[in-house]
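Q: Give me the 3D complex with zinc ion.
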Amino acid sequence: MASSNGAKTEIVELARGVYARIHEGLTNAGIIVGDDSVLVIDSLRVPSFARGLRADVRRLTDKPVRYLVDTHGHWDHAFGNEEFTDATIVGHVNCRRELEEFGEAWRANVIARNNDWSEEIKTVRITPPDLTFDHRLELHFGGRRVDLVYLGRAHTSGDIFINLPDDGLLFTGDVAQDGGVPYMVDGYMHDWVETDTRLLDLPFERFVSGHGPIGAKPALVEARDFIAALVSNAEGAFRDGQDVPRATETVRGALGGRFGGWRGFERVGDGVARLRSQTG
Ligand SMILES: [Zn+2]
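A: Here is the predicted complex, encoded as structure tokens.
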């Protein structure tokens, strides 16, 4: 399937009734078909993308969508929420708060970038989750356990993980990718390392990230090590009196051998700058 900008989508069945919808170069989603209804993970970036996702759901099943789960509030995951107001929209309390506080700034940012979504995003009705939780929400959905888990701040203040323990599956949102540098501009760099470490304790073998390919657990060890190495090398550079551009060069040099081939490695400086703003 090709979308208007030519990027391909692919539906991958991970377990009976559990699907990853992988959108090449853009944002992935998840679809869980239960006994009498459907749970969707992330509504994507604009209403037309959300409608494309719902069309894919209809191709899989005629059951209604009962839950939409937002992995976090970022526009490219949650600005399609308005197409799911017939469902209960679930997210972390901070996901709701960030959409309310920062949603308009994210919209302005996309408009200013003048990209494929800059026109449609002007019309988006920002729609925060209507069912929020703090730490953990266990759904018993269509005979399977679906745990929504908050492990602390990381990529945003409101990232949750969707864990299907009996299927060994995890949806990570944007906290971690298989071989890709996450977007760090809104991140909490110190907390992120700890959140990643807790994430490794969840029962899963395979994961679906918000971006990039489906991965296996060892890739999340790499993802944790990347953030940890970025933080420790950048802090060392700051202690040596380096400013953000010089510290970025230091970090690129230190991390390039192990992580230089990752998607988005050129964005390392975002994490260094963010850390600087969060370090005394
Ligand atoms: Zn994000």
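A quick observation: The radius of gyration is 18 Å.
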